[in-house]
Amino acid sequence: MNTVELLQYSVGNALGILGQVTADLTQEQADWTPPGIANPIGGLYWHTLASVDMAVHGWGLGQAPLFQREGWQEKVVVSSAGEQRKDHPPEIRETRVDLAALREYEKLVIKAAHGWLASLSPEDLERQVKTPIGELSLAQMVETFVIWHINAHCGEISALKGCQGATGYPF
Prior knowledge:
Structural class: mainly alpha
CATH architecture: Up-down Bundle
Number of domains: 1
Strand content: 5-15%
CATH superfamily: dinb family like domain
CATH topology: Four Helix Bundle (Hemerythrin (Met), subunit A)
Order of helices and strands: HHHHHEEHEEH
Number of helices: 7
Strand order of the largest sheet: 1-2
Helix content: 55-70%
Distance between the termini: 27 Å
Radius of gyration: 16 Å
């Protein structure tokens, strides 16, 4: 197994777990505002997928992400407080989503991520990309902004479902 194959497996695994954690998510659970400073599930779910979209299309391919280019932000985000920017997803805490539209967007993001990863060679993974935390190799960007990021938010979503009396991780 080479590095590309390992990243393909790891991204597929992370997206699969996200799918399992959100498979039975209801609109009511997605909209629930937890106490304290925790974010609602719907906002987290949107943020997670929009971040994969940004990593794949923006940093990986040098294109506008689907949420911007194809208008998915307007289709998915029902309401949010604060300044709305076309080039960046809205703040998580105040974001409410249309769960059905978000699931359609998720399918496109997953397809794009898998397609992009399948096009890479081990040499491609050495290319340097600018990220909010500095310049990283493409491999480091995928690990940090896709794999780790998805897994971290799966834990948050699972915990927030548990706070509502629902099952988070299905295993």
